[in-house]
Structure formats: C-alpha cells, structure tokens
Amino acid sequence: MEQNLDILRQEIVDKSLEAFREGLFSGTSGNMSCRVAPDEMLITPTSVRYDMLRAQDIVRMKLDGTVLEGKLQPSSEWRMHAAVYKAYGETNAVFHTHSPYATAFAVVRKSIPAVLIESCIFLGGDIRCADYAAPGTEAVGTNAIPALKDRGGCTLANHGVLAVGKDLAQAYLRAEYIEDVARIYTYAKSIGTPVTLDTL
After folding, report:
1. Can you tell me the distance from the alpha carbon of 43 to that of 122, in angstroms, rounded to the nearest whole number?
2. Is 77 an annotated catalytic residue?
3. Which of the residues 77, 118, 176, 179 is marked catalytic?
4. Contact present, 96 and 25 (Cβ < 8 Å)
5. Which architecture does CATH list for 2-199?
6. What is the pLDDT of residues 69-122, one digit of tens each?
7. Where are the domains of the chain?
8. Parallel, antiparallel or unpaired: strands 59-62 and 160-165
9. CA atoms within a 13 Å half-sphere pointing along the CA-CB vector of 64
C-alpha cells in the first residue's frame, strides 16, 4: 500500500505543478486531494507554493480531520474535500482551483452555461454555483453537494472552482474544461448572444 501511496503523492505534486503553470493555481491558492481508503485521503498542505511542493509534503489524513502522516498542516479546505467524499462514494479525487474565468462566474454567482459539447460529455451540463460559505468551513463542502449532483464540478460563490472525478486525472481534466467553457462563453458574449446546447 505504501508504494501506491507514494505514487499518488507524486501524482498530486505533478498535477499541482501543472495547474500552477497553467494558471489554475496561483501562489498557494487552490488544493487537491485523492481518496486512498473509504475514510482516508491524501491532500496538499496549506501555505506551500506549488512550484516548491514535494511528495513528502502531501498529508495523509482521515476524513474526520485526524492527521496520519505528514509534517505539514493539511489544506485549510480539508473539510470541503471530506464533505464531498462523504456525500459521493464514487468520487476519489477533488480539485479546488481559483482559475480566473470560472471564478469570475462564481463572483457574480451565475452558472456557466453549457455552450460546448465538452460541457455535456465531461461535465454533465451547465456548471452550477454553490451557495456562499466562509472559506475553510465545512459549509463550503456542504453547500457544494447539491451543486455537484450529476455534474463533474461546480463553482463556489465568491471563492473558486471545485472539480471531482474517479481519479486525479479525471478531476484535473474537468477543472480544465470548466475554465475553458467559462473563457469561451465570455469571449462569445463579447461578440453576440451565445447559444447554449440545451436550446439547440
């Protein structure tokens, strides 16, 4: 099992660095986790720049907050990750970003319309905005649960983006698509009236 955990730790580091370079993360904002047992997860630590993150920095913890391995403190949003895992048994990875276009929708508290086929294939349709909750509280996750129903992600009001998946690769891909759809919708709106797929 330790070998598998080491592989997952490195995958989290690699995906985090990729997100940092692509602009999905900035500074120390955002976080990523994966479930390693029904009640355990690996999660990025708090306050570490992603271009300096190492595999040994990844924290192993229970969903109740008990830290099992790691010298650093887990992400301040660990409660959000735990709430999603408890609500959705099929979810094994959670990715929280502050990607700019999708977060802009979160700031105005509007859904991201399904204007691309990727919205339907990979995300399940439009991306809903979860009700606001103070960052770092369990309510962030609790509020996200209904917004995630039948979707690959949601936005968090005045906060950022949450993408989920069966594994880290799927959660990451969905986070990329959420940002892509938000950006393209914004561009399209500057030209004319975007046509959503549910109106075709």
Report:
1. 24
2. yes
3. 77
4. no
5. 3-Layer(aba) Sandwich (3.40)
6. 999 999 999 999 999 999 999 999 999 999 999 999 999 999 999 999 999 999
7. 2-199
8. unpaired
9. 3
